[in-house]
Batch of 2 targets.
Target 1
Amino acid sequence: MRFFVDSVDIVEIKKLTELGLVDGVTTNPSLIAKSGQNFLETIEKICAVVAGPVSAEVAATDYEDMILEGRKLAKIAKNVAIKLPLIENGVRACKTLASEGYMVNLTLCFSVSQALLAAKAGAAFVSPFVGRLDDIGIEGMDLIDDVVKVFSNYEFSTQVLVASVRNPNHVVEAALMGADIVTLPPSVLWKLFDHPLTEKGLQLFLADWEKTGQAIL
Ligand code: E4P
């Protein structure tokens, strides 16, 4: 399973990259708006530190402008994945951009039928949003389970990129279901380390080591 980081925070992305935990990055307009950063410059900076796919989302909703914006974003770096919304024009633009050799991430996927459209359009990634389904009382992980099954029934090459991840359980469940990728906010990624018995066990080992009076170096 690959880990993407859902963030535009370059400091955080670098820190996680140095740990060897970042296989790619996803961004979205809300993250950019919240950060106050320049979008194109941010994508360029992220692509300079991350070798894997970096999703950059178009702002247009009409086909022609989606194509123009997508091509412009893809020019920033070879590892840019053009992120398009899973609407009619997005699917059409995906087909065109994918046939030109670009990586496309179809985002805002909330149903198996939408995921099928993404696969048919040749998307490199489809992003089903788990947390936002949970928020409206629908089990988000059920969608992941279904999409993974359907894609494997037909050996679609589109990768399932689990998005809107809110906690480590989402990550573990996605792994058990065989999803290709999860994109995690840094706060969730750091939480993957946590277990009270690890901390307790380490403190005990350190205290016992101290009693031995020995040194390794
Ligand atoms: C993924 O590509 C999206 O940017 C992200 O996962 C959305 O998460 P949210 O629902 O927490 O905003």
Target 2
Amino acid sequence: MTPLADLLARRIAATGPIRLSDYMAECLLHPDHGYYATRDPLGRGGDFTTAPEISQMFGELLGLALAQTWLDHGAPAPFALAEPGPGRGTLMADIWRATRGVPGFHAAAHIHLIEASPVLRAAQARALPSAPVTWHDTLDTLPDAPLFLVANEFFDALPIRQFTRAGAGWRETVVGLKDGRLTPGQTDAVPLAELAHRLADTRDGEIVETCPAARPAMQAIEARIAARGGAAIIVDYGGWHSLGDTFQAIVNHRFADPFAHPGQADLTAHVDFEALLTALPCRHTRLSTQGVFLERLGITQRAQALARQMTGERLQMHVAAHRRLTHPAEMGTVFKTCALYPDGAPTPPGLEP
Ligand code: SAH
């Protein structure tokens, strides 16, 4: 049993089963035993890898897309260059390097990183040694300024609640104890106003997930873009409309039982972009797949330019990284991209209104 499993088991024995969202929040962010709070899970020695860790091309293209949007919107100065969930800081470091040559961009930018993990904050500081950076616990404290934001694999880490349709009501997934071990179970079915709209498109036994923390995070972003201008590019795995059980654990690049290693596995769920993009005070683009988005931004030309200086194993890895980011059988289709932008402003590059 992990130390966190022990702690949660005692809590559940004392006060009863806990919601899946509470379980996920404790597993990821418990100050002493949480997965992100205690380690750097990314990169070669870690449990999983992400697009910016696979190739510098991802951050370079996102950075230039963001800088082009900034120019298209009249180069507002000063502005907040922000990223929630920046991991090791690789994406922001690539964005910062790629935008060096954009006249006025660095002079007008202040970087704002929203990060819950002290371990990863330290990694981010190392990745951005000479850039102007402020850290935040939540998106709520971002400055009241034009906001140019990227988020890659942030929303999938936010805790979800999970409901199973039962007649006109819903059973909620909770974590309880069976023979002293953490075990998923379900509450009795109750009608839920917030899921009333899903009664029309689900059948008995089907699963719907919600992400309570996603709305306040989106509100902090969309309110600034609507009032002060800017744009947000969001990349994550998921789709339009939540249906089915997408709660998953990854340990050492493999799927694992999400209840077996609390605090020692990465827990995520697919992002429901429909819920993220509902009732916005600003515009949003359509969802594009990551592969199509990166191709539109010119990843093939960038890959060819970088390949000219490479040989042997380095070249092979570079070709594999391009494929991994864009190919439908790899990250190209599962990952989706969309952007928020103000009414009346041009659409960010690589995306469709
Ligand atoms: N964007 C990075 C890392 C993705 S991993 C990349 O693409 O490589 C998820 C990141 O979100 C980590 O940095 C994690 O510590 C952070 N995170 C998770 N939950 C968070 C929360 N509630 N508030 C702030 N950051 C959070």
